[in-house]
Amino acid sequence: MLMIKSLHIFFVVSWFACLFYLPRLFVNHAMAETGSDKALLTGLQTRLIKMMRFTMWGTVISAVFLVYSLAGGAWWAYVQQGWFVAKMVLVAALIGYHYYCFAIHHQFVNGTQKRSHVWFRYFNEIPAIILLVVIYLVIAKPF
């Protein structure tokens, strides 16, 4: 079980690094003025998205194995706990955020993205807030 938990933590940390960095690249892209800067940032975003896909799926798959290793045959009762349901709702929101980042990237590639760098600075804070709440739910199990 410790190996599965270690893998899960590794994938979560890696996924969050991507979730924090891609919107930061969006901030820079929204501020970029030259075509070469935009092309560089588009390339960085494209490569980061490949890693994001891998780390998100690693997170999800390791989570399934982790729940089963923790709960065993009582997994159904485990996943019905209030804190766990709340955590899964937040993880689903993060997955939605993840794919919304991909849509934003495509808008930058197509030249249709019109939001300001200030908007992206606020957008970049969403996964940090969710991470804080998820950590609290996992550690405190308040309900």
Automatic annotation (TrEMBL):
Known cofactor(s): heme b
EC main group: oxidoreductase
Domain of life of the native organism: Bacteria
Keywords, comma-separated and alphabetical: Cell membrane, Heme, Iron, Membrane, Metal-binding, Oxidoreductase, Transmembrane, Transmembrane helix
Task: Mention one GO molecular function.
Answer: protoporphyrinogen oxidase activity
Tell me yes or no: is RNA-binding among this UniProt entry's keywords: no
Record field: catalytic activity: protoporphyrinogen IX + 3 A = protoporphyrin IX + 3 AH2
PROSITE patterns noted in UniProt: PROKAR_LIPOPROTEIN
PANTHER family xrefs = PROTOPORPHYRINOGEN IX OXIDASE, UPF0093 MEMBRANE PROTEIN SLR1790
Its annotated function is as follows:
Catalyzes the oxidation of protoporphyrinogen IX to protoporphyrin IX.
Complex and partners: Homodimer.
Family listed: Belongs to the HemJ family.
* Listed name of the protein: Protoporphyrinogen IX oxidase
Give the originating organism.
Marinicella pacifica
